[in-house]
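Recap for those who missed Tuesday's class. We walked through two folding examples back to back. For each one, the amino acid string is listed first and its predicted structure tokens come directly after. Nothing is annotated here on purpose, so try labeling regions yourself before you check the end of the notes.
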Amino acid sequence: MGRLKMPPGIKAIEEEPEDYESCSEKATLACMINSEVAAVLAVMRRNVRWGGRYMSGDDQLEHSLIQSLKALRKQIFSWQNQWETVNPTLYLQPFLDVIRSDETGAPITGVALSSVYRILTLDVIDQNNANVEEAMHSVVDAVNSCRFEVTDPASEEVVLMKILQVLLACMKSKASVMLSNQHVCNIVNTCFRIVHQAGSKGELLQRIARHTMHELVRCIFSHLPEVDNTERALVNGGNKVKQEVTGPDNEYAFNSRQLENGNSGSEYDGQLSSGSFASNASGVPMAGMMDDSAIGAGKDAVPLDLHLMNEPYGVPCMVEIFHFFCTLLNALEHIGVGPRSNTIAFDEDVPLFALGLINSAIELGGPSIRSHPRLLGLIQDELFRNLMQFGLSASPLILSMVCSIVLNLYQHLRTELKLQLEAFFSCVILRLAQSKYGASYQQQEVAMEALVDFCRQKTFMVEMYANLDCDITCSNVFEDLANLLSKSAFPVNCPLSSMHILALDGLIAVIQGMAERIGNGSGSSEQAPVKLDEYTPFWMVKCDNYGDPNHWVPFVRRRKYIKRRLMIGADHFNRDPKKGLEFLQGTHLLPDKLDPQSVACFFRYTAGLDKNLVGDFLGNHDEFCVQVLHEFAGTFDFQDMNLDTALRLFLETFRLPGESQKIQRVLEAFSERYYEQSPQILANKDAALLLSYSLIMLNTDQHNVQVKKKMTEEDFIRNNRHINGGNDLPREFLSELYHSICKNEIRTTPEQGAGFPEMTPSRWIDLMHKSKKTAPFIVSDSRAYLDHDMFAIMSGPTIAAISVVFDHAEHEDVYQTCIDGFLAVAKISACHHLEDVLDDLVVSLCKFTTLLNPSSVEEPVLAFGDDSKARMATVTLARALIWAGGRPQKGSSSPEDEDTAVFCLELLIAITLNNRDRIVLLWQGVYEHIANIVQSTVMPCALVEKAVFGLLRICQRLLPYKENLADELLRSMQLVLKLDARVADAYCEQITQEVSRLVKANAAHIRSQMGWRTITSLLSITARHPEASEAGFDALLFIMSDGAHLLPANYVLCAEASRQFAESRVGQAERSVQSLDLMAGSVDCLARWAREAKEAMAEEDVAKMSLDIGEMWLKLVQGLRKVCLDQREEKDYRNMESTLILAMKLLSKVFLQLLHELSQLTNFCKLWLGVLSRMEKYTKVKVRGKKSEKLQELVPELLKNTLLVMKTKGVLMQRSALGGDSLWELTWLHVNNIAPSLQSEVFPDQEQEQLKQADEKTGTSIPSEAVVAKVAGTAG
């Protein structure tokens, strides 16, 4: 009957022990109670009223409160029985009398409450005590009706805190299971009243009251899993239960009325300020909700409900408490907050408090809520409706709490909340996470954090896809959420932010979940394509077993196929209704001979239809259209629905035609259906029709700005006289309809498209009706049943998003996140045979490695070792290729499809070129279409050729005319960089020629660094292409010759491109030399810019320009250094020899010029040894198998000159005895390997001195091999 189970192992009465310990314990407890009595008496005697005696006739008597306390002192030490057999009321009653008395002051009441609290916490009272139920009820009743005289605010707050303390102790006591449902409700009622009053008290009382409320909720709802089956207690409750589960509007109205009827905060405060906690005080909604009047709402349920509320507590009190929390959210909009009523900010604090209590109840109730229909009904309807409302709150705190509650509900009750979850994501998360709907940044961030939390639930996206995306009556939540995450991860014209990383985390969490499911014994990844061989009514497709994957997996895939075909059919219908229906007949979604029901269901359940066309079709006078109209109306469920709500739902699905005859036909069909399901007080369907017409007219009158004189309520009532079978409709009924229409317009022109609409009351009612008939919620396990289909939808945007973030990232943890995503994509693609996705991934990874140019020179290798991004990308690429090994290639599309696509693309490009003045309107769509072709093509074909060269033509033609679009046009050319390697190789020469023409014609119009980066990237790629390099270098020559088009914005980029051509093995060596000349000649531009800056700019600007020029100089020198270290293949060794000679001369010259500054550095020794190591290496270089004679002659000469300068400047000299000067010793160790005679030539006197010392001391200190190797290795 909904009560708590008795914990096992508890006996009714313990056997009486007779040992010494028991007697000692009894005496101890007696002493404790005696101390409490003494404390209360001591405080009472301090008051004059209680210190004297009272006269009663001729006798002098003490007050009854003091008499009862003294009588207790006499009895406690004389009780012979065990404490378990003593009625707790005997030693609690004197204290409870003090608490109840309105003659005692706050200090006395506070001490009495403390005494009761201490007795409760002694664990003396439990289920085994005699008459424990009576005692617990007495305590709760006494505390709830606590009365005291208020002497000062501080003492009042102390008493209130002690009341909270005692009530919480009652609930935490072992004997709490003996409390009745009514007493638990009263406890929560009293605590909430204190929370309410605490708003005008101190901060400490406010916090303690709220904390106590939370603890009470946790204590109560933590017992829900232990509650006995409550089916009889709730289901047999008759009309009351049914009414509250299915139609709780009356209860909401009841609670709202209480607030409006004078139970405001000021009255409540006045009542509490007198110290009264009588049970009939009703200052807030809770107070009245839990009294008898609220419990006995249904006639047949009154006796049974009263009986339930007096039983040991269980589900009934939890339902009442949870209902109150929901009602508190409802009541917020009706509460008028006065200056003294409460300091709580009702726009944020009260919802947060109520939502926090609800969250605690759901956390502790968990899956057990599913077993109790009334609790579940409250969550499905009232709670979720409030969550939808508060989810759109401007407060990030409220939104965060709402999202936490929904996450808990998803974890515990998602099988019961299918449509509610769809509404939450469509109307809250997807609206708030995008700035275009007006959400603040804080709202977007909280919504995105909540979405990422959901994505981290391994089966969340799978269940959204299976239950919503694959249901023709639901929106594509999975697809919308995946698109949102991928778009939110893209940094568009802004640096990488925390929002981008957050969205990426959600995206990667989804694909990592897919990757983890691969090894869990998934179903076949190569599932047969879905086909419809014959017509079956698509709205009646059912699954035999929603719990068996062998049944539901093919079922949802078939349903998704139908949904996609319906969307295509809708597109055809919007262009030509007749051809649209013919298309659906051809795909077996409509019968060969159309019947009204199938067409009506197509209109009713297909998203994306043009509602104007649907309205025209339904209003047509053709007999078939009229039949479709009546079938269409028959798809609606108007059961127990108000007329205006039903009319709103009906007219949301199409646009009401303008002709009066069509309107009449539509309203006749509606009225017939409405009267059939919800006659209510209407006499016949004609009454429904007349009243519907009247509502449409009232709607037009009230909401059309052209109507100046508006219809009054009396006019409306008068217009509807005698329409109900010759009688009048009730005035209240018509008045309610009038105000509903005036307040909320019926939109006869509904919104087109799917979008993310707001949740209106009528839509919510419709959702609740649909939730009773919707297909069961499919719970997915850890196997990859639908991952192939899901990943095919999100793979492209996912790879692009990860690549962009990886490119922009600067922190190691972001690198690792992206790499985890790349690996997950590779694993999924390989295991599900998605070769196109693998190709895209490999191309993306190749861009991030630094090993595209094979070279044996060690500096690039060392640079690779220092570049963590390049290393990560290379390792990931290798693992992706291993996974992809042996996968077959996919077939191409049919030639007919390709010819059609090419024709359409040529037409699109022609339109674009001929509408350059309207390019802003066209460009986004043109770019996205070309991008789709470029990014989805993996082999050369006519379509991608037309797309690439069409894009280049558009850019070339429009750049001179559209300066405001220059950056957009140049950015679009980055699509060329994203071409598949095979496609790029096939068209590289022609692409380069087009880019060269574009540069020569429009160099003056390219001003931004981003634009030049695109151009130079395209040119740099051609440096290693045999056919394209000539045209690419020609364009670079045009830009850099004589600094014609060099700018600070493109200087570094052009210098880097020149280096690429200088290092290229393609073409003659003269081109490499010419590239070096371009780099060297560019120095003149730097000098010119520096002079111009000094002449024309302010001092601060000159300093900034100097820094920029310094950076450019540094990049140029670094590029030259890399070229100097570039090693050619043997066929170029003759050129390499001269290059090395020039490099050695340059090295020696720079070293000597900077010798003074370098010698001051702490690491000069390492630098000097590096120079010696380089010289030693170049003396051993072989050209065509022989050592270079020129280098063998040049290096000793340069070395000797360097040593003489170092000797002259005092840099190289022996500063201590042998073995104590590492620079000196290591220098000659290397020099002797190059030219042994140099030491005697440079230091002739020093050699004689060394020989003399060697003769005197045989233990000459020579640097150990280990030291030499370490220093030399570091220098190298």
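Example two. Treat it independently of the first, because the proteins are unrelated.
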Amino acid sequence: MQKSSRKKGKIRWSKLYSFSCFQPHTIDTVPAQDLIGKIGFSRVVFCNQPQLRKMKPYKYANNSISTTKYNVATFLPKALFEQFRRVANLYFLLAALLSFTSSPVKRETLIVPLVIVVGISMIKEAVEDWYRLLQDMNVNNRTVKAHAGNGIFVDKFWRELSVGDVVKVNKNEYFPSDLLLLSSSYEDGACYVETMNLDGETNLKIKRCLEATLGLNEDEEFNQFRATIRCEDPNPSLYTFVGNLEFQDQTHPLCPSQVLLRDSKLRNTDFVYGVVIFSGNDTKVVRNSTRAPSKRSQIERKMDKVIYLLFSVLLVISLITSIGSVLFMKSDMVQWWYLRLQDPEDPKPVKSGFQQFIRAFILYGYLIPISLYVSIEIVKVLQAMFINKDIEMYDQVTCKSVEARTSNLNEELGQVEILLSDKTGTLTCNQMEFRKCSIAGISYGGALNEVDLAASKRMNNDVEANRFSIENSGSTSQIFEMFEFSLADSSIQKAVLEDQEGLDFLNSGNSRISNVGKETVVKGFNFRDDRLMNNQWIYRSDLFNVTMFFIVMALCHTGIPVEGDETDKLKYEAESPEEVAFLIASQEFGFQFCQRTQSILVLKELDPSSGKKVKREYKLLHLLEFCSSRKRMSVVVSDEEGKIFLLCKGADSVIFDRLADNGRAYQQATTSHLSSYAEDGLRTLAFAYRRIDQADYEQWNSIFTKAKTTIGPERNELLEKASEMIEKDLILLGVAAVEDKLQKGVPECIDKLAQAGLKIWLLTGDKKETAINIGFACSLLQQDMRQFHIYLSEEAESNNQMKAMKEEILHQIESSYHVMCTDSDRSSPFALVVDGRALEIALHCDIKYKFLQLASNCASVICCRVSPKQKALITRSVKEHTGSTVLAIGDGANDVGMIQEADIGVGISGQEGMQAVMASDFSLPQFRFLERLLIVHGHWCYKRISKMVLYFVYKNIVLGLTLFYYELYTCFSGEVLYDAWYLTTFNVLLTSLPVISLGVFEQDVPSYVCLQPFTSKGKKIIFLLEPDRGLDIEWHGCILVIFLANMYILSPSAFMEKGYVADITHFGAIMYTCIIWTVNCQIALIITHFTWIQHLFIWGSIVLWYIFLLVYGALPPAYSDRGFQVITESIGSAPIYWMVTLLVVVVALLPCFIHIVIQRWFNPMDDHVIQEMKHCRKDITENQMWLREQRNSQKMTQIGFSARVEAKVSSFEEGLHRKKRSI
């Protein structure tokens, strides 16, 4: 390995590359340097001089980062602010303060519950923030080699780095801060950098240091190193940098190609030396992020509205009580003097009425459930624990599971309507595989895709049996080689149409599809076709074209061979993963690229004539590298016989435009194959070549050399013109298709989410072609979709006139929307593809609405070349425009802004660091687990929390309104019906555990049913907190039954033996008993999934009430007050107490029971039907019925795997019908 590394180090990459993607920038360099020292460009960095960095103004931020919401100083004020943003907590704080003036109950019974509720919530916030702190510490405690003096490098924590420190970063390590590249393991100071965390791009970027610092390539060289950097101030721009390096009495201009950004990774380079220029919060990636916002779910916001409503009711009934008290006292002042609250010597009914209002305001406060928030907090924490422990969301490969990093948004998972997803590392594995190729008009690589297989199952045909080739080694004519089964074959079509079986005879010859089980799996190579594998290509009739195709694949690249695990196999490192896949493929086909020097490329290739491996050298004359504007790459080489060839690969549109008249023989067939590959979501590159005469080459070489040595802004233009001179008159060889490998289960997950009604947007930093390919691969796009492309023309972009660019984008948006509105074929879905520069303009205020209107009406939206800031802006705009719940998912630092801006942020704990995870609300090891997180846990959590809130409001209204009705019954006397500790224990002790069990264990349907496509007219099975008049009638009927039954049964007659009648103590205890029984039996009616824990909590709460009466009554009267011996000496021995309890509970719950029966019998919801089927085991005994319900309830979608299968089936059926008519 060391030997290989030394070979790599000798390559001077700066001499291989021609265009400005690698050369130092010369355009606009001088004007930019003039800004140094002015506003915005005042930063001064003293390199390797720690004594100077401690002085102001040169003491900059340290390198630690923090994603926590609180610190020691801000926790108390910020946490209290968060708690008292909740209306209920604010009310009880006011009530607690008012209790010091005039209170109908003991002030301790108001203060203690408030302290408990707020305290528990604050503890929960502290624990969650503590976990964020631990993850921050994990990042800040990473180590890097830093210069400690005397040329010695020691391990140093990231958090301890300071601006000006010299660090040494080794291969595959992340850069700890923004660094200025000083030197690398390569001779000319070049290095490869992976920037997936920043821009989502998979291709490697090449950075190169200044020539002045090339000599700093050993540890000892830094003993005397001193320099000063004057540069721009910290800013979020990832692609710009302006500065000067003052070194050895000379000033050198700096540009972005010398800057290594934090969270980028060093690849294909043994080591680099760099000096810290921006640290911690000053780094560009952190500047692109935003502080973690405080997110609240829709239910929590709706709960505030419910509390406002209850608060309004509280004010109204308090006012009624106050006014009633004043009126009664005025009319019966003399008789009711004892009801006055003020000094008897100064009788003022109005003043007494005001005090009565304060007492009522405090007393009726039990309408507002103080424990609602804290109970929901507890339930959400327990829900999060169950989510974290779900074994179905554990990834055995990475040994990671789903983690709910905040529990505030559990129920919001069930309300997601729009999903915004990153591509690289989120949907894909960052691995390229060689899958198919087309050579000389023949397609190779016979693996059927899953869409074809699923469509064949739908049509009860075995598609694989219908695909074949007739192979005859060496003698088969090209006509037969190009033959492939298609829907044009009439005899086979007739057999299919007549449902004949036994089509296996079609495979009687040698199958072109290899037996995968017998193949050795090669990473990066997933190609199966016996016509090319195992050196069978040497028997092809078009041998020259096949050989040239493999030679282009093996030579046209910038890769480097490194030693592999096997003796005869090499591994490769290159700028892009596509090049690595091509090199692995060429090696498998017998063309092994084994050595590279500055001017020589060496291949071990199979000689078709002898069948033996021979080593051949190709002289590298020129390399015209790939860049986004050229969309192609070429190498000019000469073989051992002195023949000169131009080998070219690039985008098919670019290559086709440069073909010679005699080089288009296979263009039509190749175009057809390109369409097929694109539908499968594969990336394609066209291969072509040209033979160059010696005289033509020498003439072109002089022109190109002159252009290459030109210094000035015209250099790129001259190089482009020179390259156009030679990259023409090409002969097409074919195309190669590679797959940006999707993560396991991504298409299936997207299909299920589409079935659930979610709209999916893809946001990526990759180029448009790559994004579209992935759109096809994960079924966001399909062939029958109408695609709208919003982009800036080259002319408008070059002019850089904002008005003209706006007009162009607006015209594209309006024309696309017009087509959408006037399209007669409504069944054909629409897709929108937007470029990053066009997106920046489209999101301006004056045209943003029209853009979002177009986008929201498309089945899928793909945004490419978007920056981290644009991702966050898109997320915010979509939220504001649609009002829908938006979920954003990503895995890199470039996704942090999007994750934080969304209603729910999900981070993938993959291979791109932990920045996305630390900023997220939920973290997943794989994208596929999003399906279960949303459809199962989101569904359950939303339904549980909805039922909880409704039940909480119900039980508190029952308690609060009985107090009010008693106030009316006693002519607004201000007397309290219940003992103060009865009121305190109601929410805290006697009704809290059943509702917590409801929120944690309730399941309307099992998890596997949730994952089935059961929908109701496209609407998710959820409960919404909307007003329900039937529910209002049930509630008030229940309250009236409890109050009136107690009053009119107990009042007219004796309560006990010897004629004792019930007093307020007995009334309060008996009515309170009825309430405890009623509300706990009510929760038993609404629970659909019982566990032993729920039974224990429900019936245990009722038993606990009697235990409380015994214990409380046993206390001395000074403590127990009215409750002294009330159960043992009074109500417990009275038969009427037990009879009233039974009667009231049955009558109070009867309307609710009847409503449930009628609804389930005459108007059942989807979950009611499923529950009945499960209860009667009809999913097992009557499987056809179960499948019928699935089919009837399945929603037709416009994206996803199912939609592609439907489109494929329709295409097959149309072809069959056409052929049937022709037959």
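Answers for example two:
The first strand starts at residue 43 and ends at 47.
Residues 1-9, 20-30, 461-519, 1015-1030 have pLDDT under 50 and may be disordered.
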